[in-house]
User: What shape does this take?
Amino acid sequence: MFSKVLFLALIPSILAANFAVSVGAANGLTFTPATITAAIGDTITFTVLSRNHSVTTTTFSGAVCPPPPGGVGPNGFDSGFLSDLDGSEPTFTYTVVDTKPHFGACMQAAGAHCRAGMTFAINPNSTQTYAQFLANAKAS
Ligand SMILES: [Cu+2]
Assistant: This one.
């Protein structure tokens, strides 16, 4: 009986996936990959590979850039600034808690990184696409 309970408790961690996203690879203003399709319980680990960036949720349209401190919710998030200026490659891990679209960007330089296209989407869909979000960011 105890072992059956233990086994059932382990199932979510067995099935959950972890996605790795590079932030600022090759000194670029990029999240790679820029879109992630994830299920509840999956984790996304962002690793900053250059400069000083943030991983922050924002709105799909309107005032996209810069994303506000704390991020835009519900279930938004904000890594705060993560500097790789010392070569430490800092990470931020988000655990997915819903399957709704979440759009995010870097808040650095008063939104300049965001407007340059430093953006990402978790679970974009047919009405809220990453391509449209990116266009909204560049125009914001
Ligand atoms: Cu940045």
Summary: DSSP finds three helices and ten strands in the chain. The chain has a mean pLDDT of 94. The pocket of copper (II) ion is lined by residues 29, 53, 106, 108, 113, 118 (CB under 6 Å). The CA atoms of residues 5 and 45 lie 29 Å apart.
